[in-house]
Amino acid sequence: xxxxxxxxxxxxxxxESPSGxxxxxxGAPESGGRNLGVRPMEMLILGLGGCTSFxxxxxxxxxxxxxxECEVEIEAERAPEVPKVFTRIHxxxxxxxxxxxxxxxxKAIELSAEKxxxxxxxxxxxxxxxxxxxxxxx
Length: 138
Fold this sequence. Notes:
- By secondary structure, the chain is of the alpha+beta class.
- It has two domains: about 1-40, N-terminal domain of TfIIb (Single Sheet); about 40-135, GMP Synthetase, Chain A, domain 3 (2-Layer Sandwich), CATH 3.30.300.20.
- It has three helices and six strands.
- The protein has helices spanning about 40-60, 100-115, 120-125, and strands at about 5-10, 10-15, 20-25, 65-80, 85-100, 130-135.
- The strands form two sheets. The protein has a three-stranded antiparallel beta sheet, with no helix packed on it. A three-stranded mixed beta sheet has the order 4-5-6, covered by helices on one side.
- Strand 4 (about 65-80) and strand 5 (about 85-100) form a beta hairpin.
- The radius of gyration is 17 Å and the shape is elongated.
């Protein structure tokens, strides 16, 4: 997989993915940025959320759950000193559907965290990752 990140100006960069999509990244004004895009470390957390949500939705669909919506709220803490790695990440899944089985939802999240989500497996090297969920009836 080949990707590219190109510096535009100030502290603004554009990332280009192998699938042909682009995303703007920028720094905070106090770091010379202009707040034109997501921060690179925010992108990592969003990637984690996307990766694990992809797994959870896929697993629930395969287990014939009547899933209507899936959202994950992510809270992350970073170390105070450089390199300011993530030290704690909590994922709160909000799944909406018709008569969703809580055991199947828990199992889908567990499988993502422990087996399928590459982002989780990488970030767990520096961060304690926890998760919980709530089910909302559609």
